[in-house]
Write a sequence for this structure.
């Protein structure tokens, strides 16, 4: 297979590795971009690929909270100028409120009547395209709920009430005082926005992610030339470190790095007057996985 200069450039942009290393990685993996990233990481040439922030798309993340349930949506526009338009902002807020009843389905949400009007969400967006003169689209929706407690939210780079570039929801399950639960929930949500954990607990990390990391660590360990039993222990040790850095409860709490998130939540139980369980979270960043031409990737 011919390795083009554009392929080498794309891999370099993703990994920060040198041109010759990128060319070698692509040749070794027959042009498979993801495999080339892993090859470079295994050789210690590139760090883990960060999906968030690699690409950009305009629009807004909208959040709506109603007690034990909350929703977050991503509505895209072509330019940041439109994202600052009050009509667009009001529409995204209304879509977020409507999303509380969507069950996390984009298709269902698109067909639902908008919270503050009779038209469907899809028709409302179509009308806005005609009025504002720019292409727009409803891209994602997630809903977080708990049987008792609160769902806390945080908006980073806020563009207005409930709107911004990153939206986080954290389900705080507890019979404790709502005010105390919201306080620790907001702090955990801020942590999630900054640290971007993969899951709440180690067992909740996606199996394919675990397999990929283990394979890369195994390849790195093999280059040490040590016996197989030692290599296994090295890989297990690196996986423990991976979980510590990637899983919410074991991460160092950004607000107080002397504590893990788990210990910070435990400390908050005194003010809440009851045990607290972080049931789940959603972190939605504007433009994740969309190329600069606006197509999903």
């Amino acid at each position: 297979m011919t390795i083009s200069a554009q392929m080498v450039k794309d891999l370099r942009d993703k990994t920060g590795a040198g041109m010759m290393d990128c060319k070698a990685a692509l040749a070794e993996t027959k042009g498979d971009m993801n495999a080339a990233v892993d090859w470079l990481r295994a050789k210690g040439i590139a760090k883990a690929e960060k999906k968030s922030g690699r690409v950009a798309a305009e629009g807004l993340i909208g959040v709506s909270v109603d007690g034990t349930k909350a929703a977050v949506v991503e509505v895209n526009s072509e330019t940041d100028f439109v994202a600052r338009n009050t009509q667009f902002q009001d529409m995204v807020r209304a879509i977020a409120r409507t999303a509380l009843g969507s069950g996390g389905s984009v298709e269902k949400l698109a067909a639902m009547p908008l919270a503050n009007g009779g038209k469907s969400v899809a028709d409302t967006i179509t009308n806005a395209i005609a009025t504002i003169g720019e292409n727009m689209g409803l891209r994602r929706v997630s809903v977080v709920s708990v049987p008792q407690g609160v769902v806390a939210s945080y908006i980073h780079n806020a563009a207005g009430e409930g709107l911004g570039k990153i939206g986080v929801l954290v389900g705080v399950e507890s019979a404790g005082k709502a005010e105390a639960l919201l306080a620790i929930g907001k702090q955990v949500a801020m942590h999630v926005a900054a640290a971007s954990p993969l899951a709440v607990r180690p067992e909740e990390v996606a199996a394919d992610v675990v397999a990929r990391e283990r394979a890369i660590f195994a390849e790195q360990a093999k280059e040490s030339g040590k016996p197989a039993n030692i290599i296994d222990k090295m890989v297990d040790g690196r996986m423990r470190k991976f979980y510590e850095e990637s899983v919410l409860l074991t991460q160092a709490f950004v607000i107080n790095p002397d504590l893990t998130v788990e210990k910070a939540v435990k400390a908050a139980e005194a003010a809440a007057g009851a045990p607290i369980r972080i049931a789940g979270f959603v972190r939605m960043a504007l433009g994740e996985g969309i190329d600069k031409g606006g197509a999903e990737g």
About this structure: Confidence is low (pLDDT under 50) at residues 48-56, 293-297. Residues 58-199+277-285 form a domain with the Tetrahydropterin Synthase; Chain A fold (CATH 3.30.479.20). The CA atoms of residues 70 and 236 lie 37 Å apart. The longest helix spans residues 228-246.
